[in-house]
Design a protein that fits this description.
About 35% of the residues lie in helices and about 15% in strands. By secondary structure, it is an alpha+beta fold. Strands 1-4 form a two-stranded antiparallel sheet.
């Protein structure tokens, strides 16, 4: 958020409007905070810490992009390619929370993971709690980087950040 001060301020304005400074973030508030929800999803899309999904097996004989895949074939999904696909995202290489908004409302997508709703709720509460109480910025005379260390996962390069209590 420290790299995108206008987006940071817009999230905090939504938090202030819906929760104020004293009400704790909760599941009910999430529905009233589409922009915050969109920013969280965009952070996950752009931050993409797991570039390749876990191996999967084809459940039945199928054809994909002209290739025959027999039942049981192991496939790996390149999540980075999906998260940066210009056919899916209007601005694939730009941090843009609008990817997840439609007419100002959060655009829900179909998902299958049973634990996803709990994880998304926890992430919402954590993220919103931090931005409710703090503003984040780089230290004076320092620039933050979007570079990652590549391994089994992607992790950000080490940097410092200032968490400034909000008045």
């Amino acid at each position: 958020m420290a790299l995108y001060p206008k987006i940071h301020e817009k999230v905090q304005a939504e938090i202030d409007r819906v929760l104020g400074q004293s009400q704790r973030p909760n599941t009910a508030a999430r529905e009233s905070m589409p922009y915050t929800n969109a920013v969280i999803h965009e952070v996950q899309r752009m931050g993409n810490i797991i570039p390749m999904n876990a191996p999967r097996q084809v459940a039945a004989d199928t054809t994909l992009a002209g290739y025959h895949l027999p039942k049981g074939t192991m496939v790996l999904i390149n999540l980075t390619a999906l998260h940066r696909d210009p056919a899916e995202w209007a601005t694939p290489d730009t941090f843009n929370p609008e990817h997840f908004l439609e007419n100002g409302k959060f655009k829900k997508r179909e998902r299958a993971c049973l634990g996803e709703q709990l994880a998304r709720t926890e992430l919402f509460v954590f993220f919103t709690s931090l931005l409710q109480k703090f503003s984040f910025r780089p230290p004076d005379n320092e620039k933050l980087s979007l570079k990652f260390r590549v391994g089994l996962t992607l992790s950000p390069v080490t940097s410092r950040i200032c968490a400034v209590p909000r008045a």
